[in-house]
Amino acid sequence: MEYVPVLPDSLVLEIFMLLPHDAVLRAGLTCRQWLAVSRDEFLWRELFYTYYRIPRSVPRHPSSVSWHGEFRRLFDCIPCVEVQTLKEHCDQVLHLAFSHRGHRFSSCSKDCTVKLWDTERADGNISLVHSSSMRQFNWGYTQFSQFNADDTLLLVSGVYLGPHHSSSGEIAVISLENYTLLSRVRNKPYDVFGCWLNETHLISGNLHWIGNMTSCSVLWLNKAFQDVESENVNVVKRLFKIQNINASTIRTVMVAHCRRHDNPDLLLDYEAQSQAQKQKGWRQHHQPLLFDLGASGSEDGDEDVEDEEQQKEARSHPLGPGSRPAGQELEIETQVAQMLGKAHTKAPGSSLLEPSEPGNGEDKTYLLFTTGSLTYSPHQIGIKCIKPDQMTTSGPVLGEERNSEFFDSLDHVIDIHGHIIGMGLSPDHRYLYVNSRAWPPGCKISDPMCPPPIAQEIDLHVIDLKSLREERRILRAHRAFTPNDECFFIFLDVSRDFVASGAEDKHGYIWDRHYNICLARLAHDDVVNSVAFSPADQELLLSASDDSTIKVWRSPRMVRLSQAMARPSRPRSLLPSWLSRNKNCVNGRP
């Protein structure tokens, strides 16, 4: 006997529109008719916008093929289930970094060790492979690490023990073949961190104080292997020499390669987002300024670090000033520094927004760093274009470079109007994500040593490195509580579809890059300093905390798959298993 539906499809659809998503899927198990209606695309479109509270003018993710699949992606593919806690560190864990293949990751800690971990064990667990202590080199702690492009070398950055308030650091290069130390490079201030330019060369910093408020930052290109046979072969070369005024310094350098700017993994739809903001009447946030510095100020400085300079800095370092000169003297010093800078700064090259020469449009390399011009707290993103002839230490001998009296002008600056506490690049290097704590709107800075109070709410800015503009509305959810002079870096990370960040409120956070929504909170017992997505699988995330642990997070989908592989096969349930997972595993999903 042929089955006759009791209710027409249109009426079933109207009923389903009133139900939550899990009830819809369960109702779909009742009969074939209800199953077909429960997969209706119009139904899942409504459920999607309602459940995630996304403005309807925001289009579906460009790579999505259905609304049902997109709902499931955001619900089931977020790494929000804690599957392992690593407790091998005995002090605060400050930073995490994956290898480019995703088979290893490194961790840095206040216990002054850098540890290497294996992620490819057959049982799915992560295990410790190697641990190196840097105390023998007079380090206070390790703070940052980065794998080179072919995963053969590890850059490790740490804080070098010295006089009170010393800002010196050091960078070590470790071979991943036999874990031997290949070279050590002084790095000042320590929160420059350092980074790889290519497989064999890394960038470090140096700082020289010229006055109480004026300094010179020098960025150096260093060869990773410094045991050369000839004294005539350069192992170090000066990249840029930049003046700092008002007690600011260059910090947190990173390199962006622009080869894929015209073909990004995810092209963010900013027009739809801005339209949605207008329709919803959302408050418009501060838009960072963008301007060319042209022949903006720079100052003079030496190249070598002397103990006397460190002692002088200990008295005048902006994070811990002693007796400060009168305000009028500081103002005069800044005016003189600006005048001298205009006379001794090289003219900028072509604008970064101008088309490149034919064939070179996607080969630009940018050096990105935090800096400032109004106060010692970093509140600007500086951008310098690195030319092809600067990619190696070969070239002019060091003595000729030291005789240069000129400073390099910045190619672009983006003002964030707040204290910058973190930066991260998207995998395609198209977008720069910046953590900052905003200053009060309309505030004016009269004393560089007294920056404005900073907000407890952290703003996550998104900057398009192709147009050099800030895009979309600011991402928010995470918080920080330390004041200006105690503010520290909170590392964030970006995958193809997600962005994650630590916070001082004892949680890590995950947002969807396309929809600008917070999807999960990851709980710790103390401040979360760093997060890292596996480049091989964005459904695997790590978080590091002041509670001395590293937590491993996987998506509910991957957890079920691993559990299914571990137990004997059985008949497949008709009920979609992604709905039956324990809701507590979301760890406070907002």
From TrEMBL:
Biased composition regions of type Acidic residues, renumbered to the chain: 299-310
Which residue ranges contain the repeat WD?
Answer: 86-127, 521-553
Keyword annotations: WD repeat
Metal-binding keyword on record = no
Signal peptide bounds: none
A GO BP annotation: protein ubiquitination
What InterPro entries does its record include? F-box-like_dom_sf, F-box_dom, FBXW5, WD40/YVTN_repeat-like_dom_sf, WD40_repeat_dom_sf, WD40_rpt
Pfam families assigned to the protein according to its UniProt record, in alphabetical order: F-box-like, WD40
Q: What is any one of the record's Gene Ontology cellular component terms? A: Cul4-RING E3 ubiquitin ligase complex
Q: Which protein is depicted?
A: F-box and WD repeat domain containing 5
Question: From which source organism is this entry?
Answer: Takifugu rubripes
